[in-house]
Amino acid sequence: MALKVYAGRYTAHTTEPFIVFVVGMRLNRLREFPKWVMAARAFTSMLKELQRTPDKGFLGGLNIAYRGGAGQIQYWRSFEDLDRFARAPADLHIPAWRRYNKLVGNSGKFGVWHETYLIEPGKYEAIYANSPAIGLGTVLDLVPATGSRETAFRRLGGQDEPAVQSPPQPTR
Q1: pLDDT tens-place string over residues 104-132
Q2: What sections of 11-165 are H helices per DSSP?
Q3: CATH number among 3.40.50.1450, 3.30.70.100, 2.30.42.10, 1.10.10.10, domain 18-119
Q4: What is the pTM of this model?
């Protein structure tokens, strides 16, 4: 399915704080691939659950691959929502965490990792020029990158002049 291309320059915008949660799995020993596949299936099930229940606070994500592993950059409404999901006995995370601890423990066979960032309004910037919405653009409002949103520095609250003049913004 082709993604909609937004002609012109747009930025992702919100007046609310949000969470960027980066999570991944890394295969450390090739012979442990079956356990890694099991973990990947559990991860996929959790994502499906989160997509079915938007009230949990998961806004969306972008899959990533890196040497030895895979993961996702996720966007959450709040840390409280993320933490509630991670700790809720009725959700899929707790059983998956217990299985990981039982099957892998501290063996070094394969790893899981995550990083959590609390993002305040005005403390991030994004640009989408003649591009589909990617990352933040899929979960926040897209607004024209003009005026106070024309440059990265302006989107972060500063004042500067564009290094290269922007083309006129097309009308939608």
Answers
A1: 888 888 899 999 999 999 999 999 999 99
A2: 33-52, 79-87, 93-103, 152-155
A3: 3.30.70.100
A4: 0.91
